[in-house]
Write a structure and sequence with these properties.
alpha+beta; two-stranded antiparallel ribbon; 2 helices; 6 strands; globular
Length: about 130
């Protein structure tokens, strides 16, 4: 039906390996494809699970990646890549990414457009997205 490119995470490392200077890096594209996933009946239960475990999820996430991002002391929202309304797991570590409030709002507006098919999310993206 369509696919969205949600985030592009770039990692670079410089240091030493066997006493010699070394450098490495990579990129990770986080996408979600809006397939014919049916809406689930237990969305409230999934949302409640997230709400009740959000603080512990963020603590666990922070132990691996560093402090959960915030803006002016307000924590960023946790965006569910595979959304709860279509069966996404509420607490799967690989299903939640931090997103600032304005970006999270854009995500939430674009998901219905992606699931409806047609429009911008069903057209091919750039041939070489990593040209920077």
């Amino acid at each position: 039906m369509g696919c969205m490119w949600l985030a592009d995470i770039k990692g670079d490392w410089q240091g030493r390996f066997m006493l010699l200077p070394a450098a490495a890096g990579g990129r990770l594209a986080i996408t979600h494809c809006c397939c014919n996933y049916p809406k689930v009946a237990d969305t409230k239960s999934r949302r409640d699970t997230w709400e009740n475990s959000r603080a512990s999820f963020r603590r666990q996430w922070s132990s691996e990646f560093g402090e959960w991002p915030n803006s002016n002391g307000v924590s960023w929202a946790g965006h569910h890549i595979f959304d709860l309304g279509h069966g996404g797991p509420p607490l799967a570590p690989d299903n939640v990414i931090p997103a600032p409030a304005d970006v999270h709002g854009v995500f939430n507006k674009q998901y219905p457009a992606c699931y409806s098919g047609g429009g911008q999310w069903s057209t091919p993206g750039p041939e070489r997205p990593y040209v920077d």
